[in-house]
TrEMBL record, chains A, B, C, D:
It comes from the Bacteria. The keyword Membrane does not apply. Transmembrane segments: none annotated. Pfam families: HD, HD_assoc_2. CDD domains: HDc. GO terms for molecular function: dGTPase activity. Residues 61-186 form the HD domain. It comes from Secundilactobacillus odoratitofui DSM 19909 = JCM 15043. PROSITE patterns: HD. PANTHER family: DEOXYNUCLEOSIDE TRIPHOSPHATE TRIPHOSPHOHYDROLASE, DEOXYNUCLEOSIDE TRIPHOSPHATE TRIPHOSPHOHYDROLASE SAMHD1. The lineage of its organism: Bacteria, Bacillati, Bacillota, Bacilli, Lactobacillales. Signal peptide: none annotated. GO terms for biological process: dGTP catabolic process. The keyword Hydrolase applies. This is HD superfamily phosphohydrolase.
Length: 449, 449, 449, 449
């Protein structure tokens, strides 16, 4: 039997709190899960600093990746049962696409590293490029497993993730405005945070999904379920992903890594005991795939534990603030009140903080949904509803709710600063009092005025 | 206002997936949560290697500690509302005990380190002693916060955890056969693993709990709820905590730490780059509290990542097996088949494995419930049911189910060995075939025969 | 102790699937639950014909009424703990209002009869007037219990339900755009139907509710939770309450009761055996409160069981269709296609159906949310959010989502007709074929064209 | 296409709170659901008087029957996917048995009437015989649908329910100690009561079920899941099904029907207006199937509403007690204290109650599990576990927990009496005081002493 068709002697299951069980039928999938690169995802949190706000949300990218696989598997099962292709090009589902879809689903996040967003920003890495490298580089275990299917298979799986794979149904399963990836993370993040906002009716959405010539559409009878999913997604962004305290911890992390990079760029630093050897390639921007694969959340926090005893007081303090969860405070500002930022930064400097490391601004904006627009840099695949006569209509044209948020960015701009500006430490109150007062006069109702 | 009575301006809540919200009314509790020692628990998994079997169970001791606090808070609320003391010694609830109970609940696990069970075994640490040290040593932030209540307060909280506190109601809230600790971990571990076994009716149990002279009793009308809790606990042990693959990963971890200790005991080891500085005090068994507090799960796995490139092939291989999740296989044995172990170990050596590092035996036995027995080393506090006339009866005398498991240990003894003994690697099949065959003939129906 | 302050010797609880437990502290509440009029609600389904579509939704108004009581109790607890009044008129919560609020919550639906909406329409009853009558008429057990508090108490409770009670906080708890009534039915109907749409974060909403001078406001930090509630409500209307098959069964019920009324208006009808004695007062529109209280869902279906053997073929057939769940079919129409209705009705007559009893139109429109508008017949109490400086803002001015649906009715207009028009019965196909064909040509994509 | 193989154009789903969706693939199943006899189950509560204690439990036999169908469907799917027969007699699953299994599952309760247990006892009906009659009598719609498969099909389906069908796999799916019927009602009753006791891991049990020569076995790896199911069942009996208040309401119902039967046996009764025509055939014990099918819960309560105005004070009072939920009180007794019952009855008579109608004894005993015993009147099918070598072991031989309750009846014997004996009504206190005192002296700790 060719490897790709080889089934496990008995279907295997992994217990999962969101999907109850993850079902694994193919040896190929089991082998991918058992690779070193995939197991590494167990040590990288899905939500990064948000777990410092929602303490239950300590789940990892490993868990999420299995969930995306499982949803994709269910979509394939449903398509094969209800919409199997009869003749090539009839717009129905060709089950020969199943394996490439399942592998792309499982591996779509394999290139993520610790606290990806911040890490990438400081060290100029790119998790998407690394994902492709892990799939296609002959040195990885993942590549070795994929190659057993065929020499072209690794590149095919990569092309699904890169959205260049010829079959749009497969691409849209994994990445579109309503795909297996988003559906899993919304449900999973809601489950582990304990919030209710991310809940939508997965079973119903899966039931109304159907393949068509140009991708995946949704039967119009399921319009409200799709609408409800869009709303859930919107709420999760507003309530969880954009939480100001989570962003405040990200600011600290970012400044901490930046500071370390600067510190270690001077050669004498390297000689000290307990040096962050695993980060050196990144400080020098001379890393290879193997260097990258040695990193995980624990690597960073281990170095932070070293650094909290550093002779650089800023590095030590930021390490302490991150490890011991001392978030910066924040307020919103707008185009007009933005002009006040320099003045606020000056006051903060006067109070004894290096404004470069202890303040920041951060915009969190999400586009909850948009129709296809060829003028966009990355045009989105719009959500299509299929009427009983087979005609498609775009979601926002029939849903007043979705229409209300279509194409509109939602989020806020925040200025971050040390908590001490609001709660002066005892000991120096008299000295700094006027500074604090001036500072606080600029804040009202969570806004800079 | 004295510090201990100081309430937050507005009750604070933390979102929790198990209890919905954790309610915090006292500044003291908030300050304890914000200590460095408590925040460190965010980096120590509650279930250790079991998260390698139940992938959703990535929650930490931080989360669990908050849950134990919350259950204790609810018990205090209930006692104060329904059973407030009128005269000293009347066996009812004295709400002055609330703070000591809440602090003990929150801090009962503060001395845990990474993969505690295994770590303690190899490095001769003792998490209970360390808990007491963290509470009572003047250098910790926790001690500093507790001292603000009164100079004796740290020792009082410690004595609750050590079970020497004079009020048995407070002690039994935190540790007895049905306490806030167990109730939280059963519910939480069930939630995150996604299993149903740990579910019992917490609200009902809290409702039938009541203080009496010698501790805490349960109204007899709630007998079945208590019974159901005992059964849930039994099932969680059988299904989750004793899972053979989780124990197999623990065996690897244990041998890995043992090997590292032996390797680094030779002085030349210390000079190599990327040395495990944070572990040195433990290798030498000369650690202090500060050394201990720098460790977490990530520290260990970071060193394992270093070691996977070690020149010691056993250290490198065990590091790889742990990080990449390559569990040993196992079978059960009994007193009789135990005699076969030397022969099995010999075959394993013949197949090329160092039996000291690649095999082990492990017993997992739990006492699901027992009545008080003064002859035991650590006599258990039995569960008392209160009848409508106020008389107490011990649980197992009225519950046939509980009686069936009272005083009976349940679990198994397993022999662990490399998976390769069952699935020979290609390349050397011919050579080793007879060895594998001999080995496998000793196994039948998951037992050594 | 005055009756109103009399507490049960021990707080009593009723197990509830939505709120876990319903807590009862006052004897007054227990006595009200035990009245004949309240127990009667056990025999009246909450969702009427919707239970014929969502088979799990067989819960009753009894259950819902307890839930509204419980939410109100929690609101009072929260208000009393966090916002107790200090001086009269300070806009905070006066806990002397608790009892009137709890009673109004418990009794707000006590005047409902079987399949209220339809029954009222045919027999010109008015459940709100009957609610007031049950509370204030000296003959009811409810009135007797309420009178024990004070002679004015029954009228006070009634005035809360009538929205004329002077304290707007109490009124808004029970009836406003986000009140205990709506919050309970959304959660409960979602639970029993098994749909996910009605889920919102009750605990969070209760946490951000607060009394103010003119009623109840919500802290702005909870804006998204309120928004999510509005969305849930919207979805429940679209998906559950407006379900076309549920409305189709209501059409049958309505025509069936209408037909019975007409049949029994002729005096000879009364003489037949198994006459619907309990309905006579309603046929004659000469009913009193006692007559009304004898009715429940089972009374109606018992008479339908009699009538399925009636000599009036239309009465018999409609009874059969209702009891055996044979819904009419339906399609949407709009202002333009409305002109086709006479033609469709003619075709239906030609196919042998009396169009008066076998067709109907039905509009289902809901106003998901609106701001206060003094020009409306019944102006709505708008949802106010309180900023950190105490200023109020109306919800739709800060929520883009809510703004999108504010003041906009949502729903559809449907034309109902016999299923036989789409699925001709065997036996008469040839004869009627051209009729069916003509009929079906008017339908496309669930619309009349 | 033969009718039995005819699939719906698109698989239909019914939303279900327990199983999420009920999936219907065959036209045959849809047609059975649409029969009059099956729709009638919508008007018969699953739990009878227990809904008067657990107010959420208002679900019906209709809902449960769909659930049993769904579980059976999942078992068949699993068997067909994993254990399809290769050669006749190989002990594996023959999917030609699917339809008979599905129909038997759906229809197994079709013969139930209102408050079956009590009704049967008073009127000597037999729901199992009626089930067979509904399946096999040519007059029913169910029979007509089943006959479309083949002339023998109705009798085949009946034989599964009667346990005489030749294939033991099919029989055990529907009735054994762990069958689709029990699994559905435990989960469903737990869901609607809101209790946690009935929860067990359905998915896991379905996964370890497998066909073998003599029926259905469970893989030994699932032993604890089966054990947990047995414990859940045990708890549900103790906590829900045997609840004393539910049994107290059953006692009232029973005496009420008995009294009505006696009253209406005298011919003059029949002439009164509002006579209970639908019950006459049962009063006279001359009923036919059509008479039986006209009854439902609402029929009985409608007559009770008539009777509460009856001239027979006992009939009127018992009707009032049932409709308005005024349960009798009860205490436990044993073989010894049984001797006190006559004395207690005398005191009750002295207090003015007819002991025949106002007192009763009731035993509730359940056999939670037993091994097969050929000496029993109806020997039970024991639960078999399959080891990895294919050998079977009986559950209680490997489970200490199950062994503890195997073959042991659990439950209690209670004596029921009017609540007034404990809470004298005002007005007659002086007169009856000594009677009440004597009575109460016999009760202690919920027992007769």
């Amino acid at each position: 039997m060719p490897y790709q068709a080889e089934r496990l002697p008995r279907e295997k299951v992994l217990r999962d709190p969101v999907h109850n069980y993850i079902y694994i039928e193919y040896r190929l999938i089991m082998d991918l899960i058992n690779t070193r690169e995939f197991q590494r995802l167990r040590r990288i949190k899905q939500l990064g600093t948000a777990s410092l706000v929602f303490h239950g949300a300590e789940h990892t990218r490993f868990t999420h990746s299995l969930g995306v696989y499982e949803i994709t598997r269910q979509i394939c099962d449903n398509f094969q049962r209800n919409f199997p292709t009869h003749t090539p090009g009839d717009g129905l589902w060709d089950d020969n696409e199943r394996l490439v879809a399942l592998c792309a689903a499982l591996l779509h996040d394999i290139g993520h590293g610790p606290y990806s967003h911040t890490f990438e920003h400081i060290f100029k890495t790119d998790h998407e490029a690394i994902t492709v490298a892990i799939l296609t580089s002959p040195d990885t275990e993942v590549n070795q497993v994929l190659r057993s299917v065929s020499p072209e298979f690794p590149a095919q799986v990569a092309s699904v993730i890169q959205k260049t794979y010829p079959n749009p149904q497969v691409v849209q399963m994994i990445s579109s405005q309503i795909d297996a990836d988003r559906m899993d993370y919304l449900l999973r993040d809601a489950y582990h945070t304990g919030t209710k906002y991310g809940t939508f009716d997965l079973t119903r959405i899966l039931r109304v999904m159907r393949p068509y010539q140009d991708g995946i559409a949704f039967e119009i009878s399921g319009m409200h379920a799709v609408e409800d999913y869009i709303m859930s997604r919107f709420q999760m962004y507003q309530q969880i992903y954009f939480h100001p305290v989570s962003r405040a911890m990200e600011v600290i992390l970012s400044h901490l890594l930046q500071r370390a990079k600067e510190d270690y760029e001077s050669p004498e630093a390297v000689n000290e005991a307990a040096a962050p050897y695993l980060l050196f390639p990144f400080f020098k921007h001379e890393f290879n795939l193997e260097d990258y694969l040695l990193l995980d959340d624990g690597t960073l926090t281990t170095y932070f534990a070293h650094w909290r005893q550093s002779s650089d007081p800023i590095l030590a303090d930021l390490s302490h603030r991150f490890l011991d969860r001392k978030p910066l405070k924040s307020v919103k500002f707008d185009e007009q009140s933005k002009a006040k930022l320099p003045e606020l930064r000056q006051l903060i400097e006067k109070a004894g903080f290096n404004a470069e490391y202890y303040t920041d601004t951060n915009n969190s904006y999400d586009l909850p949904y948009d129709a296809y627009d060829p003028k966009m840099k990355k045009p989105l695949t719009q959500i299509e509803l299929m009427q009983s006569d087979g005609q498609l209509v775009e979601l926002s044209t029939v849903s007043a709710l979705v229409s209300a948020i279509t194409g509109k960015f939602s989020g806020d701009r925040r200025f971050f600063f040390p908590k001490e500006m609001l709660q002066p430490q005892s000991g120096n109150i008299e000295l700094f009092d006027p500074i604090y007062e001036s500072f606080q006069q600029h804040l009202h109702n969570d806004y800079i005025i």
